[in-house]
Amino acid sequence: MEMNGETGMDVNTSNEIEEARRAARALFADKLAAGWVPRGLDTYRAADGAVLFHRVRFDAPPGSAAEKFIRPIHNDGACWRIGEPPAPPQGKALFMLPELLRADPLEWVYVVEGEKAARALLKLGLVVTTSGGATSAGGADWSPLRGRRVRIWPDHDAAGARYAGEVAELAAVYEAEVEMLDLSLLKLPEKGDAHEWRLDNPGAGVPDVEILPWRICRLGQMLPAPEPDPSIPRLRTICAADIVPRPVRWLWPGRIAIGKLTLIVGDPGLGKSMLGVRLAAHVSNGTPWPVDGAPCPRGSVLIVSSEDEQDDTIRPRLGAAGADVSRVEILETVVEPDGGDAQLCLQRHLHSLSIFLDAHPDVRLVCLDPIGSFLGAVDSHKNADVRALLQPLGKLASKYRVAIMAVAHLNKGGAGAIPAMYRVSGSLAFVAAARAAFLVTKDKADPERRLVLPVKNNLGPDSGGVAYRIVLDENGIGRVEWEDQAVTTSADEALSQVATRESESDSMDAVGWLRELLGSGAMPARQVEAEAKNIGIPWRKVQRAMKRAGVDSVREGFGRDSVYVWRLSKPLLAACASRLQ
Predict the structure, then answer these.
(1) Model-wide pTM > 0.85
(2) How many Cα atoms within 13 Å fall on the side-chain side of residue 117?
(3) Same fold, 97-222 and 252-489
(4) CB–CB of 374/306 below 8 Å?
(5) What are phi and psi of 483, to 5 degrees?
(6) What dotted CATH number matches 506-580?
(7) Which residues contact 18 (CB under 8 A, 6 or more apart)?
(8) Is CATH 3.40.50.1220 the right assignment for the domain spanning 97-222?
(9) Hey, how many other C-beta atoms are within 10 angstroms of the C-beta on 124?
């Protein structure tokens, strides 16, 4: 008969344990014959480690109405008997008493009901004790808890609550600092205890126990959690286990997701608005997307534009793009409660937008062109303000399962050293809030060719970019015409190429201007700066062009009267003179 089971057993000597096993076999021979399964033999010891008695546990055989059978046995010096030996006046010893007395007095002592639950927490390295079953608290000596910090883990039933309350009162007699586990916030089955919790959390450690909902006890009663101050904002959370996972739904697979915000950025004059109209045409007709021929879910579109006229620009472009115009709604104005008209403001009119989407459940795409026109009083350069505006917009997109496409512009940036995501005008929060962002730029080798290149995509793999050209129909109306092949150039590379080319062009302009200005003679540097300012050339650009222009800076005069004079080098000055002749 094995008695160590899943709860293990204490050992004094192998002879003592073997003797206790033999005694258990003899005393409970009828249980063994009836099919009861031995699961543990737990030993109670005195402060010096001497064995006092053992508690034997059996699990019920299949079909039995009972669940378990636990009885103490002890040796009275003459023979083995069922029951505990007579307890001293102060009460019987606690389980794991020698270990409790040796533990650091600053450590928490965890009190549970029953040895099985105690073993579950002992395996984590905690200081644990119990007096045994649910009715055993009053007969135990709790003085070892004097001045200690005590946490009581009740069983999840009425008997467990009573036991925990009794232990709390008895520990308080010895001035222990007592806390109790709030089972209302812990998902345990009926009659569940620390053992069941460990089974449900096999990877748990001491930190996981520490963060459980422990409540302070006073006079044996667990104090409720403090009432929240209604003036303080509260966190609302949802358990991940309660969330039903769902796959990302795509408007344009791998590029534009339904229920998310997508950003289209680029310099003016590249056809971003025409690109938005072309996307609207795809959605209104359900025509496949370019390059990979991916299907496009058919639906309606809402266009919100602050720059293009509806009748002479948006409507003709929709026709040129082949859109089903019966599925395209164009925002005219927002009607205020007083009857007045207002431009859409994402700060004030998000609820109005949700009312529209409630009334038009087939909308799949909303185009905001450009998004900077609809920010209201929000400072587009402040991260916190932009995030506070765009997060509700993202939630609205998710709620109504629509793709929101926002057009934005690029800032001036630098000569190719700045990554594309930092070139979006305004706060970086625009790119951070969008789940995908695309750059529209010119092809350096073909200025009539436009590239749409991914800047970021949090939801899908990098599918590369696409290219298009703007072609005119017989009425002179422009439309986007896609190319069949994907583009492998990255957004950073494209911007670097364009910036370098523009920087070189600007530099050459400054070089020619300097040579022309100084061709007829030297000039004080301050006067050169004033001349540059008059025609709009940045002074730093002029300074960078000095060397290439062949300009020397010479100090003339002495002391406070000295000035720096710029003049062309002698060979360049001679060349200029010969041209003038």
Answers:
(1) no
(2) 23
(3) no
(4) yes
(5) -95, 160
(6) 1.10.10.10
(7) none
(8) no
(9) 15
CA 347-348-351 angle, to 5 degrees, is 110
Among residues 351, 354, 367, 433, the alpha carbon closest in space to that of 400 is found at 354
Q: How distant, in Å, are the alpha carbons of 251, 254, 289 from that of 295?
A: 8, 12, 6
Distances (CA, A) of 538 to 437, 526, 530, 534: 32, 14, 10, 10
Q: For 324-376, give the DSSP string.
A: -GGGEEE---EEPTTS-EE---TTT-HHHHHHHHHH-TTEEEEEEESGGGG-T
| Lowest model confidence (mean pLDDT) among 3-17, 96-110, 278-292, 452-466 | 3-17
What pLDDT digit, counting tens, does each position of 297-324 carry? 999 999 999 988 999 999 999 999 999 9
CA separation for the pair 409, 406 (Å, rounded): 10
**Cα(581)–Cα(579) distance, rounded to whole angstroms?**
5
Domain boundaries, the chain: 14-82, 97-222, 252-489, 506-580
For residue 148, which of 181, 100, 180 has the smallest C-alpha distance?
A: 100
User: 45-90: per-residue pLDDT in tens?
Assistant: 999 999 999 999 998 888 888 888 999 999 998 999 999 999 999 9
CATH number of 252-489: 3.40.50.300
In contact, 176 and 149? CB cutoff 8 Å: yes
As a whole number of angstroms, the distance between CA 558 and CA 549 comes to 27
C-alpha distances out from residue 296 to 13, 315, 322, 403, 517, Å: 77, 22, 15, 12, 59
